[in-house]
Specification:
Keywords: Plasmid. By secondary structure, the chain is mostly helical. It folds into two domains: 1-30, no CATH class; 31-220, no CATH class. The protein has ten helices and three strands. It has helices spanning 12-24, 40-47, 50-53, 67-83, 113-116, 140-148, 165-180, 184-190, 192-195, 201-220, and strands spanning 85-87, 97-102, 108-112. Strands 1-2-3 form a three-stranded antiparallel β-sheet. Helix 4 runs antiparallel to helix 10 (201-220), helix 7 packs antiparallel against helix 8 (184-190) and helix 7 (165-180) crosses helix 10. The chain is globular and about 55 Å long. The model is unreliable at 31-37 (pLDDT under 50). The structure holds zinc ion (2 copies). One zinc ion is lined by residues 102, 104-105, 107, 130-131, 134. The site of one zinc ion (ZN) has 7 residues, from loops.
Length: 223
């Protein structure tokens, strides 16, 4: 893993098992980026315990702490995983520079979500060359297919991330009651199921959106 001592493994399974051990210890291949000191996410990061949240505290969106913003963040991050990008900071909004790492070549720099989600959200990322100096465009599809093999439909993580609408609703309720009680730290802890990297992030984004839609409909109907 980049940034950690090299360990030779006998085969892929052992290598994967070692990676999982490192992940369980909270180690990550990349160093979280520093957000501006004044941002709400940074204030929350300063409030919460470091240890419990180090795998996802740096992914708190640099936006107002609301459930729709958390859902937008999870959606953007799940799409980034499909496109072969690793976010190194929390989702900053569609038109703000967002620090990330290219998984095809290891380049680190800022990209805009409004470009990656495509023109008018048509899903076609721009620019086609990803960034200056990336591997040739004709090699991108195969590289992305190889990355897709890492993604899962079920969350098999030690910590259960939301992959059902009910789980998503539970997290929303927990966050909401913590926020209402003025417990910013507790609210942030509940975002783990939404923000922490998970191989099932595509499904998680779908169930989060579905849970948010239900919530909005319920409110519209005055229930
Ligand atoms: Zn690249
Ligand atoms: Zn998971």
């Amino acid at each position: 893993m980049p940034g950690h001592p090299v360990q030779r493994a006998a085969d892929r399974d052992q290598a994967a098992a070692h990676l999982v051990t490192l992940m369980d210890q909270g180690k990550r291949p990349t160093v979280p980026a520093q957000a501006p000191v004044h941002s709400p996410a940074d204030r929350l990061r300063a409030t919460v315990g470091v240890r419990a949240t180090r795998t996802y505290a740096y992914l708190l969106p640099d936006l107002r702490f609301t459930i729709p913003n958390l859902v937008r963040s999870a959606e953007a991050m799940s799409r980034l995983a499909q496109l072969g990008w690793t976010p190194l900071a929390g989702y900053p909004g569609a038109d703000q520079p967002w620090l990330m790492e290219c998984r095809l070549c290891g380049w680190k720099g800022h990209r805009f979500w409004s470009h990656l989600r495509g023109r008018n959200g048509n899903g076609i990322p721009r620019p086609a060359n990803r960034h200056p100096g990336c591997i040739p465009v004709k090699e991108h599809p195969l590289a992305l297919i190889n990355l897709a093999a890492e993604r899962e439909y079920e969350c098999a993580c030690e910590f259960q991330h939301a992959t059902s609408v009910e789980q998503a609703q539970d997290i929303f309720r927990s966050i909401e009651s913590a926020v209402n009680a003025g417990a910013a730290m507790r609210a942030t802890l509940y975002t783990r199921g939404i923000l922490e990297p998970c191989p099932a992030s595509s499904r998680r984004a779908l169930v989060l959106r579905a849970a948010l839609d239900r919530r909005i409909n319920r409110r519209k109907n005055g229930k």
